[in-house]
Fold this sequence. Notes:
Blueprint: H1 5-13, H2 28-41, E1 44-46, H3 52-68, E2 74-77, H4 78-82, H5 86-91, H6 94-108, E3 118-124, H7 126-130, E4 143-150, E5 160-163, H8 173-183, H9 186-198, E6 204-206, E7 213-216, E8 222-225, E9 234-241, H10 249-254
Antiparallel strand pairs: 1-7, 2-3, 3-9, 4-7, 4-9, 5-6, 5-8
Amino acid sequence: MNQSPTAIANEQDAGLLLADLVLPEISDADVKRFAVEIDRQGFSVIPSYVGNEIVERLSALVTKIIERNSGEYAVLTGSTEISGTLLDTIGKTPQLNTLLRRVYAAGTGKTPPAQSLYQVLRCISGQTGLHQAYFFHYDSYVVTALLPILIPKEGRAGDLVMKPNTRRIRSSYLYNLFDKIIVDNKILQNFFKRQAIERRCGFKNVRVVPGNLYLFWGYRSLHANEPCDPKKIRATALFHFGDPHANNGLRKFTGRAKIRATDESAPF
């Protein structure tokens, strides 16, 4: 790629201000309902969380990134790579920050930690995009919010596939690390793939719609995406909140911890 994804994003999103972006206000009753639905069925959805104009701008950004990357898989992760983009603006809105904190509190019964959101933009396309299919994993964060941007309307659309709420929040980072090592095993990955394809043992797929916001317990749910036709693009923005092990000494020592916002730097 001749130009970095971040540079392309900044070029595409020039002129957008935080004050220009308004997201829905969500009632306390709806937040409680979201948590109940996530516990019961594995996910909840807020229809039309962002408008068509935002979806179109994000789609144009994704298309440009894929074109500059020769039609292959691309990803932007973390505050540095997202900085200055439309996704950065969305992630800084008080509405989204407050929403994920309230969902966290409703789902865990605990006060939300003083952490910022961790953002990812995944653009699946080409043969390298196929390699991303059926990679089952647990997130490092309690709450995952998925915002679809570009989803193929026909053929293989790379649907979200999950086995919801298969583990509790671990009391220590060591237990969490053990879970992840076990899940990364190739034999288990193939086993999960077969179960997911056959929709057995609690696996389900979720066909997502651009502009909707999908909420689930990413830390607790085993999940992946199905294959996407290599000549098409599947792009999603992910907003994560609530790392239970952010301050664990072993995690910091092994370099697995990502930078977290402190009370002083967290905007909301």
